[in-house]
Design brief:
Layout (H helix, E strand, L loop, with lengths): L6 H6 L5 H4 L9 E2 L10 E7 L2 E7 L8 E6 L4 E4 L5 H14 L3 E5 L23 H11 L8 H4 L7 E5 L2 E9 L5 E7 L4 E9 L10 H12 L6 E6 L3 E2 L1 H16 L5 H11 L6 H4 L2 H4 L2
Parallel strand pairs: 5-6, 10-11
Antiparallel strand pairs: 1-2, 2-3, 3-4, 4-5, 7-8, 8-9, 9-10, 11-12
Helix pairs in contact: 6-7, 7-8
Protein name: Metallo-beta-lactamase domain-containing protein
InterPro entries: Metallo-B-lactamas, NDM-1-like, RibonucZ/Hydroxyglut_hydro, TAT_signal, TAT_signal_bac_arc
Pfam family, one: Lactamase_B
Length: 291
C-alpha cells in the first residue's frame, strides 16, 4: 500500500497480522465486533502503513460512533481511549486480545466520558494521560455515572513530545481549548497518520467545544502539516486531510448556531445544515454550553 490513502482505500482495508485476522476483515464489509445484550456490535476498520497497522474500533450509532484505536507494532500495541460503555469497551478488549500482543502504551485523549467511561472494563491495561485530564476525569467519575476508572486515575502522566514505540517515531501533542480543555493527539511522522480524536468528528454532530475560534485555528494549522494525510478521529470512520476542511466548515456553522435564540433553535440549525449526520445525542449537550 502506498503512503497516500484516499477514502476508498481506507474503507477497503489491507492484509493484517494473523492474530488480528479473526476479528478484523476488510472494512468495505467491516468486521462486526461481538455484540453484547441489546447494543449492536461496533465495527473495526484497519489499514497498514509500512510495518504499523492501525485498527479503529467504531462504536454503534447508539454510542455516538465513538472510537478507540489500537496501533499494532511488530511486537507491541498502543491503545487510544476506552469508549463509553462496558459492552463497547469489551469489544475493544477482544480486539486487543486477538492481536496476541502486549499493550506497552495506552492513554486517554481527553476528559469527556464517552472516551473513558469504559476504561474499567479493559482489564490489564493502565491508561496514561495528562494531570489536568486526570483531575477532570476524577471529578466526573465521582458522580457515579460510570464505573470508577482506577486504571486511569492511578495511571502515569503521558510525556508530551517525540517518543519511540517499537522503533517507530511517535509524537504526542497537547492541544488546549479546542473541543475539550485539554486534548492529546498522537502523530506518526513516517506513516503520515495522526490520531486527532475529538479535534475532528466524521459524519457525527460535534460537541460545541471550549473555544471555537482557537479550535478552527488548530485545524487550519493541521491542514499544512505533512503528518495529517490520514486522520483517526474521535467519532466515525478514519478520514483524510480533506476532512479538516469539513470540520472547519462545521465549527463555523456551529458557532453561528450558538447565537440562535435557544438551544433548540441551535440544534435545528445544525440538523438543517448537516442532514446526514448522526449522533443526535450530542445535540442534547448544547444547553450545557449555552451562554
Amino acid at each position: 500500500m502506498t503512503d497516500t490513502l484516499n477514502r476508498r482505500d481506507l474503507l477497503k482495508g489491507t492484509a493484517l497480522t494473523v492474530g488480528a485476522a479473526a476479528l478484523v476483515r476488510t472494512a468495505l464489509t467491516p468486521a462486526p465486533a461481538v455484540a453484547q445484550g441489546a447494543l449492536p456490535a461496533g465495527t473495526i476498520h484497519s489499514f497498514a502503513k509500512g510495518e504499523v497497522t492501525f485498527h479503529t474500533y467504531v462504536s454503534p450509532a447508539q454510542a455516538v460512533n465513538v472510537t478507540s484505536h489500537i496501533v499494532e507494532f511488530a511486537d507491541q500495541l498502543m491503545v487510544v481511549d476506552a469508549t463509553m460503555l462496558p459492552p463497547t469497551a469489551q469489544e475493544v478488549s477482544s480486539l486487543i486480545v486477538a492481536t496476541g500482543k502486549p499493550v506497552s502504551q495506552a492513554y486517554i485523549s481527553h476528559e469527556h466520558p464517552d472516551h473513558w467511561g469504559g476504561a474499567a472494563t479493559i482489564e490489564g491495561v493502565t491508561f496514561a494521560t495528562l494531570p489536568d485530564i486526570r483531575s477532570a476525569i476524577a471529578t466526573e467519575a465521582a458522580q457515579g455515572n460510570f464505573p470508577e476508572p482506577v486504571n486511569v486515575l492511578n495511571g502515569p502522566d503521558l510525556p508530551i513530545g517525540l517518543s519511540e514505540i517499537g522503533g517507530v517515531p511517535v509524537e504526542f501533542r497537547h492541544y488546549t481549548n479546542t473541543e475539550a480543555p485539554h486534548l492529546i493527539a498522537a502523530a506518526f511522522p513516517d506513516q503520515k497518520v495522526i490520531i486527532v480524536q475529538d479535534l475532528v468528528y466524521n459524519g457525527v454532530f460535534f460537541a460545541p467545544g471550549v473555544d471555537r475560534a482557537n479550535w478552527i485555528a488548530t485545524l487550519e494549522a493541521l491542514r499544512d502539516d505533512p503528518v495529517a494525510e490520514t486522520l483517526l478521529v474521535g467519532h466515525g470512520l478514519p478520514a483524510t486531510r480533506g476532512e479538516l476542511d469539513t470540520a472547519i466548515a462545521y465549527i463555523r456553522v456551529m458557532d453561528e448556531a450558538m447565537q440562535a435564540e435557544s438551544p433548540d433553535a441551535a440544534a435545528a440549525q445544525l440538523r438543517a445544515a448537516f442532514p446526514g449526520y448522526g449522533g443526535e445525542f450530542l445535540l442534547s449537550l448544547i444547553p450545557e454550553y449555552w451562554n
